[in-house]
Amino acid sequence: MFIAKGKRKENIAEYILYMWQLEDLFRALQFDEKQIYATLVEPQSTLTPEQKEQTYFWYLDLINLMKSEGKVEVGHVDYFMHILDDLNDLHLRLLKLPIGEQYTSLYRTEVESNINTIREKLKKPKMSDTEVCFRALYSVMLLRIQGKEEDASYIKDVMEIISPHIARLAKMYHDVERGNVDLFKSKEE
Fold it and tell me: Would you call 72 helix, strand, or coil by DSSP?
């Protein structure tokens, strides 16, 4: 809970990936409350007993949300997907607005063809650019956790091309969210 709050505040991309990982951890633990406490809460030695209790109940709330949305076997909580939609909306706006000129240039020259290649491999022609990027990043994270880094070229491409792109998008998201950037400001202003 405390990790998630920090990530949500500082890096929206890390937040989404962290929350997807939590969903998968809950599934791996078969939503067993005792296992979740023993595996995910108890080992957090920096938390006070009260913070552990808060974290545990937050996990249970998230599990209940997953169950109520039918995300027990697969899928991601709607809230996280809405954030992904917001990020993709920002991505599309940056491709059109003057403030996104540098973003667009980097996207067109470094990223776009890689996203299209990944989208083709996923066989999801209608998946948004941003979701494709997040799925690629998450797959690399899972490969690394599992120690299956045999597809080194895929991992290298994702980390050298997709990761910096999402980092740029996440930074802009937070800048807009905090009011530090006005998307509709003209260049002359």
Answer: coil
Please indicate, yes or no, if residue 114 is contained in any of the structural domains: yes
Q: Count the domains in the chain.
A: 2
Residue 168's contacts (CB-CB under 8 Å, 6 or more residues apart) are 103, 106
Question: Cα–Cα distance between 142 and 148 in angstroms, integer?
Answer: 8
Give the structural domain span for 84. 78-177
Shortest CA distance to 114 belongs to which of 169, 166, 161? 161
Long-range CB pairs of 152-160 (<8 Å, 24+ gap) are 157/114
What is the per-residue pLDDT across 23-53, written as a single tens digit (0 to 9) for each?
A: 999 999 999 999 999 999 999 999 999 999 9
Clarify whether residues 33 and 60 are in a common domain. Answer: yes
Cα 171 from Cα 94, distance rounded (Å): 13
Q: Is 31 left (phi over 0), alpha (psi -120 to 50) or beta?
A: left
Q: pLDDT tens for residues 100-141? A: 999 999 999 999 999 998 898 888 889 999 999 999 999 998
Total-model pTM: 0.91
Taking the C-alpha atoms of residue 20 and residue 22, their distance in angstroms, rounded to an integer, is 5
